């Protein structure tokens, strides 16, 4: 049995994980952590509207509930809260699975430092399809390096998403950058306007927002006389929720280290 505390429990991803957790006999959310402004009642079942979760605590303080769990799942969508939840997990010796995106490079390094003490899995996208896309993009970028192909990345998400571009788009761009022996800092161009002629080493990244789009990502390899478009479209948040549940079952009992969904999925 894997017992988890879920941070961001009443958010879109939190609720998807709560609902899906009921289908597992060896996985249990034992408590929820939420932003203090979201807590009207301290009962996870009542607050989420899921009867089966009645009697389980909902708190704004991870410290109050962490001792009873094996693993923390982090979907608060708030990078500084995610860093502080990682510190608390590290002090308690619990593994943590982080799905939150929007971290600065310094925040990623801060999270990573705790992987000396505990197992940490950080992934901007927990779907099988996107993780396969990461591999396909790496293969394509390596094959097309120095072959006069331009790379552009587009993503579309629902109107409520706070960070842009998505963590997944940034990861796709960094995969292309490292295949091209460059860095995101030196090559990424986020949106364009005015007079701007593309340079050959640019990796363009553009974010669209609207409606209820769960998450679409396309990587374009644009050549002369041909182009390749690699697209993933998520049509349900359950895809990510299932990945997060599988990741937390996988990480339980693993030695300290910094892991990704490639480790979980065997990719
Ligand atoms: N890795 C993956 O596969 C995926 C990652 N994501 C990422 O997950 C994150 C969450 O997405 P989503 O569920 O749509 O976002 P939501 O805004 O719907 O959910 C986040 C929840 O966490 C709460 N929260 C904010 N601060 C804290 C805190 N300090 N402690 C506990 N809870 C807090 C929010 O409260 P309040 O509203 O009051 O701020 C909200 O209820 C985003 O960063 C998103 O990009 C999303 C899908 C898949
Ligand atoms: O905020 C979302 O919804 C999503 N965020 C993740 C990201 O930023 O990459 C993953 C997914 O596309 C949904």
From TrEMBL:
Keywords per UniProt: Amino-acid biosynthesis, Cytoplasm, Diaminopimelate biosynthesis, Lysine biosynthesis, NAD, NADP, Oxidoreductase
Subcellular location: Cytoplasm
Entry-linked PROSITE patterns: DAPB
One Pfam family of this chain: DapB_N
Positions of the catalytic residues: 157 (proton donor/acceptor), 161 (proton donor)
Dihydrodipicolinate reductase N-terminal domain span: 3-126
The protein's annotated pathway: Amino-acid biosynthesis; L-lysine biosynthesis via DAP pathway; (S)-tetrahydrodipicolinate from L-aspartate: step 4/4
Residues that bind NAD(+): 8-13, 34, 99-101, 123-126
Keyword Oxidoreductase: yes
Catalytic activity: (S)-2,3,4,5-tetrahydrodipicolinate + NAD(+) + H2O = (2S,4S)-4-hydroxy-2,3,4,5-tetrahydrodipicolinate + NADH + H(+); (S)-2,3,4,5-tetrahydrodipicolinate + NADP(+) + H2O = (2S,4S)-4-hydroxy-2,3,4,5-tetrahydrodipicolinate + NADPH + H(+)
Binding site for (S)-2,3,4,5-tetrahydrodipicolinate: 158, 167-168
Enzyme class: oxidoreductase
Function recorded in the entry: Catalyzes the conversion of 4-hydroxy-tetrahydrodipicolinate (HTPA) to tetrahydrodipicolinate.
Subunit structure: Homotetramer.
Protein name, UniProt field: 4-hydroxy-tetrahydrodipicolinate reductase
Annotated source species: Hydrogenobacter hydrogenophilus
This protein's encoding gene: dapB
């Amino acid at each position: 049995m894997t017992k988890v505390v879920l941070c961001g429990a009443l958010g879109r991803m939190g609720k998807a994980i709560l609902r899906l957790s009921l289908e597992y006999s060896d996985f249990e959310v034992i408590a929820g952590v939420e932003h203090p402004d979201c807590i009207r009642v301290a009962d996870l079942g009542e607050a989420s509207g899921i009867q089966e979760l009645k009697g389980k605590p909902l708190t704004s303080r991870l410290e109050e509930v962490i001792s009873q769990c094996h693993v923390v799942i982090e979907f608060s969508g708030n990078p500084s809260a995610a860093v502080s939840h990682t510190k608390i997990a590290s002090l308690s010796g619990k593994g943590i699975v982080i799905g939150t995106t929007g971290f600065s490079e310094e925040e990623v390094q801060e999270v990573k430092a705790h992987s000396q003490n505990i197992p940490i899995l950080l992934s901007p996208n927990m779907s099988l399809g996107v993780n396969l896309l990461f591999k396909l993009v790496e293969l394509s970028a390596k094959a097309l390096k120095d072959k006069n192909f331009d790379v552009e990345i587009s993503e579309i998400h629902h109107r409520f998403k706070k960070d842009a571009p998505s963590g997944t788009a940034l990861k796709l761009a960094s995969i292309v950058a490292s295949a091209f022996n460059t860095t995101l800092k030196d090559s990424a161009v986020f949106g364009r306007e005015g007079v701007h002629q593309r340079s050959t080493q640019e990796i363009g990244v553009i974010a669209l927002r609207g409606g209820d789009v769960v998450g679409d990502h396309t990587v374009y390899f644009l050549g002369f006389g041909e182009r390749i478009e690699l697209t993933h479209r998520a049509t349900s948040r359950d895809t990510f929720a299932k990945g997060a549940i599988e990741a937390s079952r996988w990480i339980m009992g693993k030695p300290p280290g910094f892991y990704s969904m490639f480790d979980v999925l065997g990719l």
